[in-house]
Amino acid sequence: MGKVVGFELSSQEPEKAVKFYSNVFGWDISEPKWDYWAVSSEKGTEKTGLNGGISKGPNDYPHGTRIQIEVDSIDDSISKAKENGAMVVREKMEFDEFFLAYLVDPTGVGFGLIQKK
């Protein structure tokens, strides 16, 4: 079963978004890496918040929020999603610790798939 493991806020003014979410909600936001600011919304010992990031929105998703769903096999999940009407907007990308792809469901909602290495 896919588990929601994170979020990404896309903005054409990410520095302004970083300041806003930090000031309003007290989120801990890291220094940028690849135009991406990692966000920790967890506070205290319970660690119940969902973490994510803020990024400069790409051309295919300039503004908005996408959830990231962790899957066992990103290739199988992409294939199954396409069979069920999804469109891939960013093919599988490789990072140090995970693979990531972005899709749009048949209703137009964008989401990310993530597979840990």
Q: What does the main sheet amount to?
A: 8 strands, mixed
> If helices are DSSP runs of H or I spanning 4 or more residues, what is the number of helices?
2
Oligomer: single chain
Count all strands and give the number: 8
Q: Give helix and strand order, one letter per element, not per position.
A: EHEEEEHEEE
Instruction: State the share of residues found in helices, binned by percent.
Output: 10-25%
Rg, nearest Å = 15 Å
Shape: globular
Average residue-wise pLDDT: 90
- Residue share in β-strands: 35-45%
Structural class: alpha+beta
Distance between the termini: 17 Å
Low-confidence stretches: none
The largest beta-sheet arranges its strands as 2-3-4-1-5-8-7-6
Explain what this protein looks like in three dimensions.
- This protein is an alpha+beta fold and 117 residues long.
- 19% of the residues lie in helices and 43% in strands.
- The protein has two helices and eight strands.
- It has an eight-stranded mixed beta sheet with strand order 2-3-4-1-5-8-7-6, with helices on one face.
- β6 and β7 form a beta hairpin.
- The protein starts with a strand and ends with a strand.
Keywords, please?
single chain; 117 residues; alpha+beta; 8-stranded mixed sheet; 8 strands
Which helices and strands occur, and which strands form pairs?
Blueprint: E1 3-11, H1 14-25, E2 28-29, E3 36-40, E4 52-56, E5 64-70, H2 74-83, E6 87-94, E7 98-104, E8 110-116
